[in-house]
Structure formats: structure tokens, C-alpha cells
Amino acid sequence: METTQRDDVAEVLAAVRALPLEARVEAWHAVGVELFEVASRPTIDWGESSALAVDAVTVDEELAQLDAERRALEELTVTAAYVSRSADATMHAFAAAHARVVTRHDVLEVDQWESDPRQFVPGEFAADDLAARLGVRVGTAEAWAEAGDAVRASLPRMFVMAGAGEMRMTTCETVLRELEHLAPAERESVEGMLVSGRALLGGSAAVKRRVRRLLASLGLSAPADEDASEALVEVSFREHPDQPRLTQMTVVMDADQAWQVQAAIDARARQLAQEHERLHGGATRYRMNRARVDAFVDLLLGSVRFDPIVRLTVPVRCFEDGTTPGTTMPFAGQGSGMPVPFGAIDRSRGCSAQGGSGRGVARPAAGQAPWGALYREAEDGVAPLAAGQVGDGVGIGTAGQRRAATAPRSTTRVADLHVPGVGVVSAACVERLAGTVGSAFTVALVDEKRGVTRWTSRFTYRPSITTRRFVEQRDEHCRFPGCMRPGEFCDADHVVPYADGGATSGENLQLLCRHHHRAKTFGGWAVVMRSDGVCVWNSPTGTWYRTDPADTTAYEITSREGYALIA
To answer: Which of 184, 218, 252 is the C-terminal boundary of a domain?
Structure first.
């Protein structure tokens, strides 16, 4: 039976090899889909010719049948893992071949058009179209291509093993990083030792430890790279993927600093836990992780004096009174009309008369934030709150006190706010922050319906602070298909070039990272942006994409859909 199966496989393989490459890959994919459908059924269909396709009659026969199926499914699962690893290596190899073809194309194009003023490196944008098609970041597609070529050239035996599914490409890349400081002859020798032993089994972390131990035993350890370590030091924030009211903070620091920080946090956390136990007993649970977070915040804010600056994007509507949209209304102390921030006015209180206009914002009660002051300097970008305007000497307090603060009062004039890169901040927190002496709020007033800023400078190339921040908070990241580089690291690109009359306004500005800014300028990509911020892209190979504001998904669309969107 095994001989017959091997003969059948060899016959099928010979037939597949006679097909063009594109057809072979399509057949590969079709077989994979068909096998998945079989494996996902409640009962496996082994096929009529299989020895397992036998109906059991007695209990003993059924037990024997199940044992045979169990062993067969174990083998199939192992084989599927080999196929998965082989497919990953094949994908890396195809990505590398794609990069080489695009680079050759660019070289020939540049040679043909010697007077072409475009300034780019051949192959610079090779991964952009591929990344958009795959729905990954450009850096990821570039890394696949680079790893495919690098592993093939530097670790040829491991590359062949990955192609056969005997190891992961990620493991190959890990080994290559650990051996990149070696001379070619030394690297070849170490590769042979690793392949012949069991050092390549397990995950990347385990393999890395074994490789470093082997290099240390051979006296070939990599020298310390201070510059590389320094480049990794950072403090970053991002929204929690599941809980919008939580923020993830990542700190990469020197180890000698980290152990001191850890000791201080643990000591303060134990103090907080003891205080909680003394005050509440066992009535409420105080988790140690919560105690550590509170301890970290207390230690940080208790040792630093600062004036917080909060950036807000405020949707606006127009009101004739406190409830009816339809017109503009001047702020306190101003004679010119400006839109009232929607949600910033307590509509149950209405609007009090200001001056002779008969319109204005509600007066704040004693000790409350003069919310009109938050928007008074909207055009300039910052509205400071001076001491005495909002309760004198209101401190930030400890983390536990801040968490245990009372719920928002009925006079709250601001709803919960979404701060890009941080998450949802409660109205009560905003009020407490406004009560801190020296606090400042940076405000962009955004048309609630259209999602565009109401104040822009159309006659200068560089956008104002307000316009730049509006574009950052609308887009949040690079608008190129598939790119998620945060907006703070992106350029404000004129969709219609400024030299061609394009306005420096929210309707004509989009965030592009520097690489994709160059791809739009030099790489043959075209884009049109609608008034609602939707961007329609067309790649050099004719593929159409749609990207929406603050949406990380690039939607591949047909040319008909693309023309309909920009009509």
C-alpha cells in the first residue's frame, strides 16, 4: 500500500511540474483549501481507498479504528506543520524574487530616461504594492524579501531545511542575526555544527540561547554594541487593543536602571497594599498588579513638577440657544462668531446673555472650569488656565485618590474624550486636570458632520498647528494602503500638490510617512482624497485601494468602484 501511495504521489508531482509556475501555485492553493475543508468536518472522510474507511461492528473494532485514526491524524498534523513552514519559506523566496525584478525594472527605466528628475534608489518602492496586496506593513514585506535573500546567501543549508519544512524561517533569521558578525568561513562552520545537532529545535528564544552558548564555547561571541543598545531605549504609549480605557506603556531602559525601578515600585506597592488592608480589610480586593501600577504613578508624579498639556479634538455644532443647532455663537468676551463645541455646553442650563448680543456660553459655577476659556485661543492652538480660575491649589493627588474620585457631576460640560494613542479619558479626569494650576488645552474645532477643521490657512505651504493636529487626529497614522506608522512620525502631504494650487487645509492634507511620501512623489502611485477624508489610491501596476480615516485596513477595490468614489 505504501509503495502504491508513493507511486501515486510521484505521478501527480510529475504532472504538476509540467504546468507553468502560476498554475502550480494555484494547484497548491486549491489542494490546501480542499484539505482544510476535509479536516474541518466533524467526521473525517478518509477516502474509499484508505484502510481507515472501514465501518466498525463491535466495540473492540471501534476502539482499534479510533486508535488507527488517532495515529493517522497525528501524522497528518505533523505533515501539515511541515507544509506550513515550507510555505512560509516559499513566500520569503517569492518576495525576494519580486524585489529583484522590481529593482532590475527600475534600473532599466532610469537608464532609459536619463533626464528623468526623479530621485530614488532602484527598488526603493518594491515592497509597497506587495504589502498593500498582502495587507501588511511595507516594512514587513521588505523584511520578508531581505530575509529570503540573506538566509539563502549566508545560511544555504538552513534555507533548504526551511524550504523542506524542517525549520521555521523565523529561526533562520534569528540564527543569522546571531552569526552576522562572523566571517563567511566561520559562519559556514558554525552553521554545520547547528544543523548536525539539536540546537535548531524549539522556538526562536531557545535557539538564540543555544547559539550564544555555542559561540561562547568557541570564543566567537559578538562584541557588545553600545550604539545598537542605545537605539532601542524608548518610552512609548498605545491604546489597549481590547479595553479602550486602558493604555499600554512600554519602557526599554538600561538593566541597571530597571532593577532599581523595579525595587522601588515593589516597595511602594507593598506600602499601598498595607494601607488598603488597614482601611478596607478584606471587603474589597486590591490586586498586586493594580498596586504596582498605582505605585509607579505615585513615584513618577510625586517626584516631578509639570504643567500638563492636553490635546483635544472637539466636534462642533452651531446653536441659536442652548439646544437648537443652526448658527454660530460668540464665546465669552469675543464679538466674532465661532462654533460652539458640541457636548461642551450643558444644554440643560441653556446659554446666558453676554454683552449686547443676547448669546453666549453658560457661566461656570464657582470652582468649575471656565470651559469657554478652553476654546478662546483655538486659532493659536493653546488656551492656558491660570491659577485661581479653577479652584486654587487643586493637586493631582495619589493614584489611589485619583481612581477613587467621585463620578462626574451633572454640570459636566465635556463628554468622555478619545485621545489618539492613549484611549478614552473620562470627563471627570478632564475636569480634575483642568483644575490643576498650569494646565493647558490644545483644541482643534472639527465640523461634527464633515469631520474637517473649521479654521485652516489656505495660503501657506506649512499647515498651522491647529490644522496639523486636526489631520493627525483624523488620520492617526500614514494613509498609504497597509501602513500604520503613527501620525506623529508622518509628513502632512498635500494630496493636490501645493505648486498646482492645492490648499493647505484639512480637505487636502493627509498623513504619509516619509517613505510613502516619496512613493507618492517618485514611485508612480496616485491618490485622490474626498471631502470626507476617504483616500482612493492607484498603484503603479493598476491595483486600486481605498483607505478610510483612522482605519488601518486597506480595502482593495475594482477600478469601477475607484472611479465611482472619486466621481
So the answer is: 218
